[in-house]
UniProtKB/TrEMBL annotation:
Residues 190-288 form the HTH araC/xylS-type domain. Keywords: DNA-binding, Transcription, Transcription regulation. InterPro entries: Homeodomain-like_sf, HTH_AraC, HTH_AraC-typ_CS, Tscrpt_reg_HTH_AraC_N. SUPFAM superfamilies: Homeodomain-like. GO terms for molecular function: DNA-binding transcription factor activity; sequence-specific DNA binding. This is AraC family transcriptional regulator. The keyword DNA-binding applies. It comes from Catellatospora coxensis. Residues 276-299 are annotated as: Disordered. PROSITE patterns: HTH_ARAC_FAMILY_1, HTH_ARAC_FAMILY_2.
């Protein structure tokens, strides 16, 4: 496993906004240990080349370090931070956005028996494993293309497909494969997650969201909990509070208005739940946010 070359490539090509010249490829570089902060995962592969990170999803905690990867199959609200990072040894991570259509295409192309059978029910949306040598090698070859822009247009899509195939047939393949299965439990839950995210300020009945997802209420609740580690109402609250924090960064003097905009009828309930989530009441946290730049998602 050649993590040394990957560390050098990531360190050299890292940008503040994590973007790269290759579509869907992200690079994260953090030179200090951070306080836990909220973000959305996106549907991604995240491979750590140096350092370590801890992520909390509901009541589950995931830790991964150099030589390990995390797969997020649904865009979920998490709280995370790098636990090993310093100016001398910054945390370095590679990310690749996962697209359900590409997963489906690879599954259709695979010969019978080439893809391991899937399990029953919806898997957790997050999973951590040791990165096999073949996966690291493909990631290194993809990041090398940042130094070869003439080759990237042709070769990058091929290597991204190779990386995805390694995931599909790897230890966490069940999580990734369900991304491409139109009738999988994960796909139904992802549909519900998207609806709640788009209507987070709106009260809803779990029965109605289950119907939108095409599942019975009992199956929906069970699978939603399995995928997100939260109930649908808890998930909505997480989204509301994260959106409130973003709004407070630009409207620090309108705590009541922000709480109302994200769906809270009670200012005291908003303040109480906000403090429980972020460790400070909205007004105090807003003042702190004024002195910092908005933190983007870090893999």
């Amino acid at each position: 496993m050649d993590l040394a070359e990957l560390r050098g490539l990531l360190d050299r090509h890292a940008r503040p906004d994590m973007s790269t010249a290759i579509d869907g490829v992200l690079i994260s570089k953090v030179d200090r240990r951070e306080q836990p902060s909220p973000s959305m995962t996106g549907s991604v592969l995240a491979l750590i080349a140096q350092g370590a990170k801890r992520i909390a999803l509901g009541d589950r905690v995931y830790e991964y370090r150099a030589g390990q990867y995390l797969v997020a199959s649904v865009d979920l609200p998490v709280t995370g931070h790098f636990t090993k990072a310093s100016p001398q040894q910054p945390a370095l991570g590679f990310g690749l956005v996962l697209h359900p259509a590409t997963v489906a295409e690879l599954l259709l192309q695979a010969a019978p028996g080439d893809v391991p059978p899937g399990g029953t029910g919806a898997p957790s949306a997050l999973a951590v494993s040791d990165a096999p040598d073949e996966l690291v090698d493909a990631v290194v070859r993809l990041v090398r293309l940042l130094d070869r822009p003439r080759d990237a247009a042709v070769l990058a899509p091929l290597i991204k497909r190779e990386i995805l195939w390694r995931l599909i047939t790897g230890e966490q393949g069940g999580v990734v494969r369900q991304l491409g299965l139109a009738d999988s439990s994960l796909t139904h839950i992802a549909r519900a997650v998207r609806w709640i995210r788009e209507h987070y300020a709106q009260a809803f009945r779990v029965e109605d969201v289950a119907q939108r997802a095409g599942m019975s209420v009992s199956a929906f609740y069970r699978n939603f909990q399995a995928v997100t580690a939260m109930s649908p109402i808890q998930f909505q609250k997480q989204i509301r509070l994260q959106e409130a924090r973003l709004l407070l960064a630009t409207h620090p003097n309108d705590v009541t208005g922000v709480g109302s905009r994200v769906g809270y009828d009670s200012a005291s309930q908003f303040s109480r739940e906000y403090r429980r989530q972020f460790g400070a009441p909205p007004s105090q946290d807003a003042a702190r946010l004024r002195d910092t730049t908005g933190a983007g998602q870090r893999l």
